[in-house]
């Protein structure tokens, strides 16, 4: 048995297998990338929390009990490009932004004209701060409750 | 909404396929080394073969076991990281068997691979444990910081005389410069997550564009790095200082607004330059650093042996250029496909089992495998940073953990490979998963465990 030849063959086998493993991993990445496209739509449908309207205020389309679904980042305001559109006249075009970080809800008032109240207290504008649980948020004349 | 996912076993086909081939590589590798050693001595290799199957089987079993564990736990995604880590570990183990025989390999397995897999398993089994890590972060940071301090004062020396390990009674000596890196990552991640968010709104303008946040947001981190640097420098472990610095900068960049980061970095750099200037005037730059730099610039220079033409009594073989010279020769001797496992002469490269293991690998496996190894590291790093992007908005602690871990792995590979190939000065850094080192391997596997645990936690969120 010519060991040198055997060992030489083993060496090439190792090299070949090494690169096949790399190939397999690349295939895995590719399959994951193409599968993710379908997953994106599914992820968009997941809700992480809800706002329930307690007092509808000036928007005729909103009634007490209306539920808004919240994503990880949800914008709220009078403008049409917001995730939640409130037509109340005391609501600014881009009023506030809600954010979920996996553990806590954060609220940032985007320097709105009439401000935001949380549990009837004025909310400091321009800074993202954590919300207490079951917070009652007042935007313009619309009063909503945060449900997790 | 955040329901616990019911664990149904998953197939993980990509991982299984890759691991099967990795298992074959392991067997072929160990058998080749055993056979080659015998053949070189003109003896019949057959009797040596069964002995080689023991470490091969143990490693393959351990790596496959973790894969089965992931399957049983119902982990669906991330089939790339474990095969990459496994293949690297196999190459390292084969090389250690080649260099040091059974003792080296079983030490690596027993003190590094096995405990590391256990720790990773514990983290993946219950990803909530990351929350516990977060709560314990200050203590972890303190303990991690104290380890090098205690070692600098009471540690035991190793073959190069550097005091790197702590010996507690009958337990084997453990290196303390590795745990501090993970401890710092955890501590910084926790601190910036706790305090940094509030820092965003309260930065003061400096020179128009830059912003400096209140001191309490970055001083603890700086203090941590400063104390660690002092301890590590007195242990002569400059490589660790370099890595800590790189991790610190990376996490700062990820944790703060760009303008704040640039401000802090500028201040830090300024302080470092001033300190360097003062030190070079009043205190000799340590001989080690000077020689390493000279060796990097010209490994064959005789300046270290006979500066000013006067011989200093150091022979070429003892000079710091010798390491790099031998490493370069080894890489050249390896060529593309290597000299063959067991057919090279890695013993001529000093520290071939730790700092220069890449040279030994390049000599026997060849550059073709060396390139593949770099690819593997690149894939591993990309997966980690991909996870950072995929985390839900706002998970600062987790994000910074991953950035720190990624920076840790990257810097190690970059500095170590650079040193071996004489693209950077030698720094005494070991390469993850390949070099000999129980604690280092344990820490690296723990980091992999954190990454996989966060991946698993993310899977649960989607339901």
Write the layout of secondary structure elements.
The complex is a heterodimer of chains A (148) and B (463).
Chain A: H1 3-44, E1 49-55, E2 67-70, E3 73-77, E4 84-85, E5 96-100, E6 105-109, E7 116-118, E8 121-122, E9 129-130, E10 136-139, E11 142-147
Parallel strand pairs in A: 3-4
Antiparallel strand pairs in A: 1-2, 1-11, 3-5, 5-6, 6-9, 7-8, 7-10, 10-11
Chain B: H1 13-40, H2 49-72, H3 81-125, H4 129-135, H5 137-154, E1 156-157, E2 163-166, E3 174-175, H6 179-199, E4 203-206, E5 210-213, H7 219-234, H8 238-255, H9 258-282, H10 287-297, H11 321-334, H12 357-364, H13 367-390, H14 396-420, H15 438-462
Antiparallel strand pairs in B: 1-2, 2-3, 4-5
Helix pairs in contact in B: 1-2, 1-3, 2-3, 3-13, 3-15, 5-6, 5-7, 6-7, 6-8, 6-14, 7-8, 8-9, 8-14, 11-12, 12-13, 13-14, 14-15
List keywords for this structure.
heterodimer, A: 148 residues, alpha+beta, 5-stranded mixed β-sheet, 28% helix, B: 463 residues, mainly alpha, 3-stranded antiparallel β-sheet, two-stranded antiparallel sheet, 67% helix
């Amino acid at each position: 048995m010519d060991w040198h030849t055997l060992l030489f063959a083993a060496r090439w086998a190792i090299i070949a297998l090494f690169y096949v493993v790399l190939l397999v991993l690349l295939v895995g990445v590719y399959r994951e990338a193409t599968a993710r496209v379908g997953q994106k739509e599914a992820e968009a449908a997941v809700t992480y929390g809800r706002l329930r309207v307690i007092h509808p205020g000036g928007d005729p389309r909103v009634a007490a009990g209306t539920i808004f679904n919240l994503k990880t980042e949800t914008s709220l305001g009078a403008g049409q490009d917001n995730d939640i559109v409130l037509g109340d006249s005391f609501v600014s075009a881009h009023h506030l932004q809600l954010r979920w970080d996996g553990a806590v809800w954060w609220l940032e008032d985007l320097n709105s004209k009439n401000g935001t109240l949380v549990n009837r207290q004025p909310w400091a504008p321009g800074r993202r701060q954590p919300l207490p649980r079951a917070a009652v948020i007042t935007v313009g004349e619309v009063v909503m409750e945060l449900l997790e | 909404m955040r329901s616990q996912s019911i664990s149904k076993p998953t197939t993980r086909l990509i991982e299984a396929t890759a691991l099967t081939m990795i298992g074959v590589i392991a067997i072929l590798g160990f058998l080749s080394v055993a056979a080659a050693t015998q053949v070189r001595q003109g003896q019949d290799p057959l009797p040596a073969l069964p002995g080689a199957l023991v470490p091969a089987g143990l490693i393959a079993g351990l790596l496959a076991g973790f894969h089965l564990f992931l399957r049983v736990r119902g982990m669906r995604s991330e089939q790339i990281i474990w095969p990459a880590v496994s293949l690297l570990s196999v190459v390292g183990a084969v090389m250690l068997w080649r260099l040091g025989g059974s003792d080296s390999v079983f030490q690596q397995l027993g003190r590094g691979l096995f405990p590391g897999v256990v720790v990773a398993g514990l983290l993946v089994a219950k990803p909530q444990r990351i929350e516990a890590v977060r709560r314990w972060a200050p203590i972890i940071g303190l303990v991690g910081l104290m380890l090098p301090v205690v070692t600098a004062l009471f540690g035991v020396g190793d073959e190069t005389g550097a005091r790197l390990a702590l010996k507690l009674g009958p337990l084997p000596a453990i290196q303390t410069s590795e745990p501090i890196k993970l401890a710092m990552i955890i501590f910084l991640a926790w601190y910036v997550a706790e305090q940094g968010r509030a820092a965003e709104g309260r930065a003061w303008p400096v020179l128009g564009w830059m912003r400096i946040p209140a001191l309490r947001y970055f001083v603890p981190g700086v203090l941590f790095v400063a104390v660690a640097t002092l301890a590590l420098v007195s242990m002569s472990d400059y490589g660790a200082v370099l890595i800590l610095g790189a991790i610190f900068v990376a996490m700062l960049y990820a944790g703060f607004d760009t303008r704040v980061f640039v401000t802090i970095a500028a201040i830090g750099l300024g302080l470092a330059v001033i300190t360097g200037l003062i030190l070079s005037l009043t205190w000799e730059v340590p001989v080690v650093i000077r020689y390493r730099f000279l060796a990097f610039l010209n490994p064959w220079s005789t300046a270290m042996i006979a500066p000013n033409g006067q011989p200093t009594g150091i022979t070429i073989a003892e000079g710091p250029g010798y390491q790099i010279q031998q490493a370069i020769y080894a890489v050249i001797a390896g060529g593309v496909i290597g000299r063959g496992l067991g057919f090279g002469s890695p013993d001529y490269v000093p520290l071939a089992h730790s700092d220069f293991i890449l040279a030994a690998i390049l000599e026997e496996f060849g550059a073709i495998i060396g390139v593949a190894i770099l690819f593997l590291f690149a894939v591993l790093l990309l997966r980690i940073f991909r996870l950072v992007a995929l985390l839900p908005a706002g998970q600062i602690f987790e994000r910074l953990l991953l950035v720190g871990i990624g920076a840790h792995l990257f810097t190690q590979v970059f500095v170590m490979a650079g040193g071996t190939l004489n693209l950077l000065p030698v720094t005494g850094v070991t390469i993850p998963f390949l070099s000999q080192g129980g604690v280092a391997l344990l820490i690296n596997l723990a980091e992999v465990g954190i990454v996989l645990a966060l991946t698993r936690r993310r899977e649960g969120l989607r339901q």
